[in-house]
Amino acid sequence: MVRLKNIHKTYHNGSPLHVLKGIDMTIEEGEFVSIMGSSGSGKSTLLNIIGILDNYDEGEYRLGDTHILNLSEKRAAFFRNKMIGFVFQSFNLINFKSAVENVALPLYYQKISRKKRNLMAMEYLDRLGLKEWADHTPNELSGGEKQRIAIARAMITKPRVILADEPTGALDTTTSYEVMRLLQEINDEGVTIIIVTHETDISKMTNRVVRLRDGVIEEQNREQE
Amino acid sequence: MIDLDTWQEIFSIIHKNKLRTFLTGFSVAWGIFMLIILLGAGNGLKNGIFRNFEGSLINSMFIYGGRTTKPYKGMKEGRYIQLSNDDYREIKRNIPEVELISSLFNLPGQNYVAHDSRSVSFKIMTIFPDYQAIDKLKMLEGRFINNIDIREKRKVAAISPQVKKELFKHKDAIGEYIIVNGFLIRVVGVFEDDDNDDSDECIYLPITTAQLLYGGKKDISMLQLTIPSSSTKEAALDIEKRIRKQIGELHKFDPEDERAAHVSNSVEQTSEIMTVINAIRAFIWVIGIMTIVAGIVGVSNIMTIVVKERTKEIGIRKALGARPVSIIGMIMQEAVLITSISGFIGLLSGTVLLEFLRNKFPENRYFYNPEADIMIAVGATVLLITAGLLAGFFPARRAARIKPTVALRDE
Fold first, then answer.
1. Which residue in A39, A94, B219, B299 has its CB near the most CB atoms, within 10 A?
2. Pairing of strands B183-193, B156-159
3. Which of A92, A93, A108 lies at the smallest CB-CB distance from B9?
């Protein structure tokens, strides 16, 4: 599903910062992978490159059958919309939109009618037990509820990969476990899930742990179970 | 790009960001409102002045006979020049710029006008029909002296309301007879003079009648004429020179001899008033342009801030698959919608207020008929919308181009 070969990435903010120094990694369809590492290890950068939110300087990245290289913004938007669902540590919900509108937003960019996409969004909210919060705006909801709404939003386009950057970073332990259970359920349906975390107990709930240190892969544990 | 769903999305954004919408809209509405009020007030002032000086705005000339100061063609200096019907005829024939012309003949001595048992002294003016237009006399009843009166030397008169009041009290005057210096004259009209000069107590007779009855022969006291009000100062002075030459030929005096015939030319005065009016007009324009510039700056500022404020939202939308064009479109369409609606509101409220002012001060001396050119106002609105668009476009494009990771980091 995701094939990375010798990926390099350098940031040029002031002094050049070589964040990723040759990443080789393959993630098969249906895997549930966690990327671990201390802060500054490049794990978020790696996730952003996988999610086409950022570009890489060197190497080769294939998502499914597509070689992701110098995509136009339009093509990148297309892939993000169709192939990838995002879950962020800070939820990144749009504050002035209600829960159901937030969940339905990706479908707006697929030109699905308002009525239909709101109906679909309600289905997903129902599945995650959030139906009664549908008309609430994000700031009326708890962190766990917000993250579940974000997950519903990531699921609604039926993506093949869900990328989660510290999805439990802003949540307490109980809520974190609920969110992880939810992601596990989605993974059980065959969706590839890649999360970035620095919490060992969270990474233990995934099928495979990739450890990054200073921009290189330290360990790719394939037989974690 | 522009479909119902896009608009629904925009309406929901507007609905949920009322303060932002209000601030953007208010600056546009206020700009247009102020523009209309200022243009209207300026125009009211201009119209007021114009109306006050309307009478003086005609480029008119008065010509009197004088006394020669230079010998000419064997004739000595010090001759009196008496203008006559010939001067009237020749000027009318030879100076094409002359629009209206009338000669005037003053009856010598005291003039008594009588009706029934009443006898009062009035000023008697004897004129050609053109004089009505030259002096802007408005007929209240009947008619003014006409060309048939002139040709047939009819014994008719037009009188002012004051004369009518003194002689007739509240009775009808038209068709009645009055005695002017011993001759029976029929009243054919009552006129009113807008300018408050000395024609209040005045009687007008056909000049030909007066010359016949009161022994004026061909003599006239003066000539009064108008030239187009669009004439430049140079053109007016040139006409004056040719008139002088014409009279000089008839009376055999040196055209350079300025005191042989006095020509008083109102062009200096007229051009002064026109300068004032043009200054007001320029002032209105400067203020209008300043207001629009202020509006443009305001709208641009707000649009820049709006885009900045929405950077994170744009990042989220991009992560969810929004194409740059849809981001730009969303911001621009919102901007156009808000600016056009609020521009219209400003247009409407400004026009309503002007209309109110117009009805409130219908006859003010210095503030008359305030009006704003609706095309200018609409043009200004369009300009503001365009400015809002441009001001929104560049930041929106920048926001749509930045990497989602950067946009998402924005707080």
1. B299
2. parallel
3. A108
ipTM: 0.92
Q: Which helix (H) or strand (E) holds B263?
A: strand B261-265
- Structure confidence by residue, pLDDT tens digits, B170-212: 888 888 899 888 888 999 999 887 665 555 678 899 998 888 8
Contact of A109 with chain B, judged by CB distance below 8 Å, is answered with yes
Non-local (6+) Cβ contacts of B51 within 8 A are B368
Among chain A residues, CA nearest to B313: A94
The CA distance from A83 to the nearest CA of chain B, in Å, is: 10
Number of Cβ within 10 Å of residue B109's Cβ equals 8
**Cβ-based contacts of B1 with chain A (< 8 Å):** none
How close, in Å, is residue B336 to chain A by CA atoms? 21
Instruction: Give the C-alpha separation, B385 to B340, whole Å.
Output: 6
Which phi-psi region, left, alpha or beta, contains residue A115 (left: φ > 0; alpha: ψ -120 to 50)?
alpha
Q: Closest-CA residue in chain A for B408?
A: A92
Question: Residue A104 and residue A124: Cα distance in Å, rounded?
Answer: 10
Contact B323 A51 (CB under 8 A): no
pLDDT at B318 > cutoff 70: yes
A78/B400 CB distance under 8 A: no
Distances from the Cα of B392 to the Cα of B301, B309, B379, angstroms = 9, 12, 20
Distance, in Å, from the CA atom of B60 to the CA atom of B52, rounded to the nearest integer, reads 17
Hey, what are B377's tokens? 């106002």
State whether residue A32 sits within 8 Å of chain B by CB.
no
